[in-house]
Amino acid sequence: MFNTNHPLLKTAVAAIFSLSAAVSSADVTRSLAIPSGTPSADEIMDQVFYVNHFYAFDNYGIGKKGKKITVLVNKSSGKKPTTITLERYLNNNYDDDDTVKAKDLAIFRSGKLRGTGMLITDFDEAGKSQSYAIWIPSLRKIRRFAEPAHDDAWGGTDFTFGDVTLRKPDNETHELLGTETFSGCLGSVTLADNEKNKYTRNLPEASCEPDGKQVYKVKSTTKFENWWYDYRISYIDTSSFADYRTDFYKDGKHIKVIDRDWRPVENPSDPRMVVWGYWYGKTFATDHETWAVIPPEVVTYNDSSKKQKLWTEKTLRKIRR
User: Fold this and answer.
1) Residues 6 or more apart in contact with residue 49 via CB below 8 angstroms
2) pTM given for the model
3) Per CATH, which fold does 7-198+206-317 belong to?
4) pLDDT tens digit string along 253-297?
5) Taking the domains of the chain in order of start, what are their residue ranges?
6) Which positions ≥6 away from 275 have C-beta within 8 Å?
7) Neighbour-count burial of 44, counting CB atoms closer than 10 A to its CB (0-12 exposed, 13-18 middle, 19+ buried)
8) What is the CB neighbour count within 10 angstroms for residue 156?
C-alpha cells in the first residue's frame, strides 16, 4: 500500500475531498424516498447524506469549458493564497452491479498537481473500505492507498475527510431543534488585487441564495470519544434537504463553519436534484479559510455521453501532464 504521508498525496486527497461529490459507504441508498409529514432528525440527516452524494443523479461532473474550471483556494492570514484547479466526475449508475456502489474520478489541471489523477471506488458490501488509486505523472505509475481517517485534514484545507465524505449519519446522534428562516449570506474568501491570479480574477460574490428560506435546525453530537468537535448544528433546506451551513462546537466554543452554496437544476424531477456553486470553510482559531468555487458553466449531470469506461484506471494512464 502506498504511503499516504507522501506530500503529493496529501495535497491531492485534500483537493478531491474539499469538492466532495465523493463516494462513501452508508446504509443510505439511491432508493431513499422523501419522507412524508415532518421528518425526524435521523430522517433529515439521511436525506442530507443522499443530497451530498448526488444520489438523485446517475452521474455528476464539474469539468472545463473554455477558461472556466473549478478552483480551490486556501488562504492563511498574512500569507499568499494558494490555488489548485481540477475536474471531477462522479458515477452513481451501478444499480445493475452487485459489487460497486459508485466511482469518483478527479484530474488536476494546474500547479504542482498538474497531470495527477485519482479514482475512488465505493463498494456495496457493508463495511468494505473504499479503493483509492492515484496516477503520479512523475512516475508514470498508479499507486494505491488506504481510506483516510475521519479527522485527517490534508493539504492545509479547513475540511476533514469526515466533514466532506466519510462521516455517516450513524456516526452521530441527531436532534431536531426546530424550523426557522435562514438569514443572511454564505461566507466567501476576499482576495486583494495583488493576491489574484488568472484563476481567481473573476470569483463570485458571496451567495445569498439561502436567505429567507425555511430550514431545519439539527444538532448532531459525535459518537467518537475525545473528538475534535463535540457537536455541530446544521441548517437544512426543508424542501431540497440541502445543508447550507454547519457550525462546529468544542467545549461550548464555536470553532469552525462550513457553508455550501446549493443551486437547483433546470426542470428537476426530484427536489433533491441540487448542485454546488461553492463550498466555504473557516477555522476560527487560525482564521484560515478554504473556498472551492465551481462555475455553473462546467457543471453536468445525467450526461449519457459519459460511458462507464471513463471511470477506470485506463483513464488515469491517459492523463497528460
Assistant:
1) 24, 26, 28, 168, 169
2) 0.90
3) outer membrane lipoprotein receptor (LolB), chain A (2.50.20)
4) 999 999 999 999 999 999 999 999 999 999 999 999 999 999 999
5) 7-198+206-317
6) 54, 60, 262, 263, 265, 294, 299, 301
7) buried
8) 14
